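Question (not urgent): is this output format expected?
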Amino acid sequence: MDLLPDSAPLATKLRNTLVQYHSIADSEWRVAKKTKDATVWRKPSEEFSGYLYKAQGVVEDVTNRIVDHIRPGPYRLDWDSLMTSMDIMETFEENCCVMRYTTAGQLWNIIAPREFVDFSYTTSYEDGLLSCGISLDYGEVRPNFVRGFNHPCGWFCVPLKDYPSHSLLTGYIQTELRGMLPQSAVDTAMSSTLANFYSDLKKALKT
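Got this back:
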């Protein structure tokens, strides 16, 4: 079991990585899925052999409320159908924590339940917020779970200039599910999961 990293330099590095992703030219992305709620693109990841996914959609709510539903906290478990448990393991200053969470099986359980331990950091970005995370090799792996690994990922949420009660939510996700899995199954699951994330989030914000 590794020791916890120093939170401040990790948070800075993570933020810088996400801002770099946010500036990748449109021409580098390929559309993976499009629904009424969101568009999902992908490009080969520079961190591992899978894809970096980008998801984007307009959400009818203010930035702070949306991010409160996404970042670690009591809201997330209520609405995110993929997440089955979440515990905050450590809390640092400045909106930083380490959380352990588990996800449900997917694709008729071809993808078995997964466990992740992520460092999470929420900070201001332009007129809105950025909530980002990266997995840590920390804590014992629980039985019946495969430990997955999230390379740098995060969600930018900024108010629309002409409609401040609406926000543009852009996510960057690159998840290494690990275990013996066909890559095609992972790719199918990721695109659908990200599109569903938007529709589930919108429903939760309306309640």
